[in-house]
What we know:
The complex is a heteropentamer, with 1 copy of chain A, 1 copy of chain B, 1 copy of chain C and 2 copies of chain D.
Chain A: H1 6-49, H2 55-59, H3 72-103, H4 108-122, H5 125-139, H6 146-170, H7 174-182, H8 187-216, H9 219-224, E1 229-230, H10 244-252, H11 257-288
Chain C: H1 4-16, H2 19-28, H3 38-70, H4 73-78, E1 82-83, E2 90-91, H5 94-125, H6 128-143, H7 146-164, H8 174-197, H9 201-208, H10 214-225, H11 227-243, H12 246-251, H13 269-277, H14 286-316
Antiparallel strand pairs in C: 1-2
Helix pairs in contact in C: 3-14, 5-8, 5-11, 6-8, 7-8, 8-11, 9-10, 11-14, 13-14
Chain D: H1 3-8, E1 13-24, E2 27-38, E3 42-46, H2 53-60, E4 70-78, E5 81-82, H3 90-96, E6 97-100, H4 111-121, H5 127-140, H6 144-147, H7 160-172, E7 178-182, H8 190-203, E8 208-212, H9 216-222, E9 225-230, E10 233-239, H10 240-245, H11 250-257
The complex binds adenosine-5'-triphosphate (2 copies), magnesium ion (2 copies) and phosphate ion (PO4).
Family (chain A): Belongs to the binding-protein-dependent transport system permease family. CysTW subfamily.
GO molecular function (chain A): phosphate transmembrane transporter activity
Membrane topology (chain A): Multi-pass membrane protein
Amino acid sequence: MKLIDKTIVAKKMPIRLVRNTILKGLFFLATTFGLLVLGILLYRIFAQGIGYLDWDFFQNFASRRPEEAGIKAALIGSIWLMIVVAPVALLLGLGTAIYLEEYAKKNWFTSFIKLNISNLAGVPSIIFGLLGLTIFVRALALDRSVLAAGLTMSLLVLPVIIVAAQEAIRSVPRELREASYGMGATKWQTIVRVVLPAAIPGILTGSILALSRAVGETAPLVVVGIPMFIAFLPKNVFDTFTVLPMQIYNWTSRPQEEFQSVAAAGILVLLFLLIFMNSIAVFIRNKFQKRY
Amino acid sequence: ACGSDSAKDSNSSASETDKPLQGEIAIDGSSTVYPIMEAIAEEYMAQQPDVKVSVGFSGTGGGFEKFIAGETDLSNASRPVKDEEKTQLEKNKIDFTELELAYDGLSIVVNKENDFVDYLTVDELKKLWVEDGKVKKWSDIRPEWPKEEIKFYSPGTDSGTYDYFNEVILEEEPLVENATLSEDDNVLVQGLKGDKNAIGFFGYAYYAENQDSLKVVPIDNGNGAVEPTHETIKSGEYAPLSRPLFTYVANKSVADKEQVADFVEFMVENAGELSEEVGYISLDDKEYDKDLEAVTQLKK
Amino acid sequence: MVNEEGVTILRVQQAQYSIREMIQERKQKKRIQIERFIPSILSLTAAVSILTTLGIVFTLIFETITFFKEVSVSEFFTADKWYPFAEAASYGVMPLVLGTLKITMIAALVAVPIGLATAIYLSEYASEKTRRVIKPILEILAGVPTIVYGFFALTFVTPVLRSIFPSLEMFNALSPGLVVGIMITPMIASLSEDALVSVPRTMREGALALGSTKLEVTLKVVLPAAISGIVASIVLALSRAIGETMIVSVAGGSTPSLNMDVTTSIQTMTAYIVQVSTGDAGYGTTIYYSIYAVGMTLFLFTLVMNLLAQYISRKVREEY
Amino acid sequence: MDKTVVSQLSKEKVYETSQLNLWYGEKHALKNIELDIHQNEVTAIIGPSGCGKSTYLKTLNRMVELTPDVRTSGEIKYRNRNILDKSYKVEELRTQVGMVFQKPNPFPKSIYENVAYGPKIHGIRNKKVLDEVVEKSLRGAAIWDEVKDRLHDNAYGLSGGQQQRLCIARCLAIEPDVILMDEPTSALDPISTLKVEELVQQLKEHYSIIIVTHNMQQAARISDRTAFFLNGEVIEYNNTNTIFSRPSDQRTEDYISGRFG
Amino acid sequence: MDKTVVSQLSKEKVYETSQLNLWYGEKHALKNIELDIHQNEVTAIIGPSGCGKSTYLKTLNRMVELTPDVRTSGEIKYRNRNILDKSYKVEELRTQVGMVFQKPNPFPKSIYENVAYGPKIHGIRNKKVLDEVVEKSLRGAAIWDEVKDRLHDNAYGLSGGQQQRLCIARCLAIEPDVILMDEPTSALDPISTLKVEELVQQLKEHYSIIIVTHNMQQAARISDRTAFFLNGEVIEYNNTNTIFSRPSDQRTEDYISGRFG
Ligand SMILES: Nc1ncnc2c1ncn2[C@@H]1O[C@H](COP(=O)(O)OP(=O)(O)OP(=O)(O)O)[C@@H](O)[C@H]1O
Ligand SMILES: Nc1ncnc2c1ncn2[C@@H]1O[C@H](COP(=O)(O)OP(=O)(O)OP(=O)(O)O)[C@@H](O)[C@H]1O
Ligand SMILES: [Mg+2]
Ligand SMILES: [Mg+2]
Ligand SMILES: O=P([O-])([O-])[O-]
């Protein structure tokens, strides 16, 4: 007894294949779309900014004269910001993710933390700015320092890192943990030696996205009140500083046409910084990537 | 007290010669005033590289917020301090001195293709910009003008520029509801360039930089149409649309921190020249002298 | 015998020393049990996220209360005008909410299909090599500062759109909406791709072996299996659209309005907060407090959305 | 029926493989394979680990293409058409040639949806037909009684052995012509294995079956013909009886005599 | 050595299980288990799928605790201490009691690092000692020759059979007292299986081995004692010879006679 009508199957085959081909094309187009936009964006910025991108641009502080304006304080400031954000956010994020995935019992408190984190991930950055201003700048009297801004940004990107790390930790096969426990390894040893190394690619993906965000954010720092003009470099995390997007924001709002080009040059620097960060992470990711 | 006085005197004279000063100066406030203060800070730090001057960009209101909290030494403002802010400052025992830095001339601007608007009177301006519940056409202002709908571009309602316009032109009546508002004057420039029936206003510097692609409208305040130019603004002939820009200094900072005192002096001496350079109009020299006097008072 | 040799060596070396004994020995001089404190230390880090939320609520709530002493709650939620700077001020938050919604909707219409399609292309169709090249590039797109996107919207997208739809105003919801969509697309693409890739290969093989086309495998097997990760990525991305500030401030204008028109100038909740915090409003005025009330609304807004998404994600999740 | 008799009927050929070579990148995994598969028979493929059994099986429905960097040369004719021809639609091939994997791999859907998946994608939408197909396939895979009361539960709630039979049912649901099985019982307990073996014997009435197994007794018990692979080559291919009683190649004998289990 | 003789020596008991019950939530998976394990013997556990073999094995090193909602009652004495006692450190227990799993589960590290893992976590850092341990364990698991030239390659490059032997080597590296094996050969080809079986026979000189298998002939071949589980109960436990030649319980006989494979 044959229930499947093979003629129907045969008849449907061509249309299914066509559908597959068409959608594959559409998926491809969608992918190119993103790249195309990036291309246009980069082209415009490049064309406008490349003329200002010389060695002096990196050597000089901000200036009222477009030819003399430089990115030094902002670039170094952004790096300082990352020096605070990366370890703080990564440590807190990983710690939380490990706690949630490995230690936390299934109870209302744990689900409350989880809910809380996914909600925090959606809280607009500008609200973190208000938080940073109230808690770090004012209450803890950190002023408009690298530390105050860095902590604000850490909290901002924390949820992204937590969620990515959780996802990565969860996807480490159970068999690997069992193997480790089976050798008498403690939970912590298992986490450090087996789970985390296997989860690194995933954790990195999330962290890149998070750090890129921290580097490119303007709104919360505007609210925190990071100054614009700085003609010196911070010596430690308690010094005041400025960052690339703030500097760019400022240049774009200048009346002089030349500053638009200076801004474009600044954007180029920021993009190069992002590309640099991403390539480090991609390198590590590819190096560690294992398929089980 | 006597000893410290003499120490200060010797220091302030030394600042112009050899002994370098140290310390920090925190400045924040109006984004309109920012370019002037940036220029001053830049020049000052060329002379005193060990003084760390930081200039913020938080807007007049935001600047005062920090000034009230005692976080800044100077607060830039594109309007005089408000009563609420004064109350707060008194509450926090922060005495301050108001210093004028420069003028900004608000420019009324239309699209380059607009060939019929030759000038506007202050009354016409008000008629144009006040909300009256109707769709506005050019022909509503002068019958010979085309019957086309006007597009309005205005700085954001929270800017000093808007505030000033509101006060002197609108006289606190509501602005046309369908006006397009933006915080960023460059953004307004873009709008006016693209829109044939557009009219808008913003700081003089933004017009000066875009003279080729925009058309400025002379204003008649009863004494004939006056176009905003460097001279007409400085002389006060371009009225009523030029406004002063300020910075507020905490008296205590000047008294306690020698680098602040030194900076403020430097600022008053150079504000005229430097504000011209970044696109504003300098005050009369007498005004700066008055400022200088006030500062010297504080140091005592 | 294969193992003859192995066994002899085993014996020989056993004579020299025994790992078992070495381990026992090390057990004796066991270092202090740091292990025991690890859960507590980690739970402290986990508590940071709760403290953050508390901090936000704490920061927002006091000023919000002050605000509501001056403006009634009912006015805030029912008045149809947001006009805080006029003499006769009106504080109806709906126009701002609507502005935010417009941007989010347009962004979602762009980002969800494009982001998902990209994720699918990368995880199911593209070669490993392509994937490795394109993914990091897309991540750069996610890191472009929003202020850059803002000017891109204003000076490129808007003029292009205006040449197609001449009635479009210089400031509108459409252009920043599209660009916000572009900004969050990589986020959806990258995170969804992770979710898709983590679906076991054996599941794809099972479906392919039944004569499925790749499309069918993707839509009927892989996508459903990865759905909770995908929903999470979309929610995260849309939350960013809701919270996006700079793009909207630059290209959206600042005119709160209560209509469904996307061709005219708008203002979003975030744009309002930036407007006031970089602007001129006096410290201690009603306007000053209003940013906290708007911030609170925004906070609640994202909260509700997230709860909803959690619920949906739990409903559709497939266990394996 | 005596196996020798069966094979001597010289049934119609389903697959004809000639001069098949396959490389994974540099690795030459299949070497000059010559092998014909006959209709309504069970053909077993045995050989040590890594000898290319799975690879050959996966070439028969071109699943091997999913591995990147795979190259093939030679010819595999399925019902007289060369399936290695790029113009041959894999979807069509795989509709004719079902596959059961070593590790059960049900979809994370209900039991019902798992079985109905194949018919559905092939355009069968009629609820009544689907119901019947599901029941018939589950019965065919000897699992109907165990799951009939929970057809709409998630398939991951089943035990390993049940999952494997579900996967067989899923494969039967599209009524293939050939069924490929890659060590289908290696993850199963003896009772489940027994059931699956019986099943295979029954299924050959309607289907041609090719089974990879590392269990020589299983091959001896259930297959009509056996191919012995070594290092990517077919060392010997013959009636199962012949292979196990009088292998003609020394290597075959060595392998078989080292047998157990 | 004759098996009967071995068991009659009545060697020292490693494990003594009494009145062991275990529940997965509501599911009563082990019922009143009474079972003693003897030193330097191979004990096989057989029974149909789902009868609780793996569960019992995992209870012996308390790996079963990793499953949420598990409850136990009764007693398992390992070297005269009750391991179900909460005060018993699982890490200590598992250092004494190694485990080999059904599916090879090497870490995504190099071969060397896989084997050195155990000694390292137990604080052995000396490079020379580690090198020796690695070599010794790999030899002990009969895989040294195959991997000695690529100790620093990733373990995932090995074949399934090699991976499993690597896992055994990894387990040997900490020189446990007891080794638990859960169907260690079910994913392997015959030659690898043979190797592992020989290995098991040799290892019992130094270790006590408990092996779960669904392959009765394997149990008969390599074990000294066999326990037959059914539905969470121990139906019969005796010398392997006795179990396979004169089972005392009808159910045992039924199960064994339905045998194959
Ligand atoms: N994706 C791959 N890339 C490179 N080499 C591969 C790949 N898959 C398999 N091989 C190699 O090809 C050869 C044949 O592999 P195959 O899986 O067909 O063996 P098998 O006979 O099925 O073994 P087993 O009984 O272990 O399943 C092996 O040497 C294997 O290492
Ligand atoms: N995590 C779990 N939750 C609930 N029930 C479980 C769980 N693990 C196992 N069981 C049930 O406990 C019983 C015993 O399982 P166990 O894995 O010990 O069987 P087994 O004899 O090892 O079977 P197999 O030969 O298939 O491996 C089975 O009925 C199984 O369904
Ligand atoms: Mg295989
Ligand atoms: Mg088991
Ligand atoms: O920044 P402003 O206060 O001058 O608008």
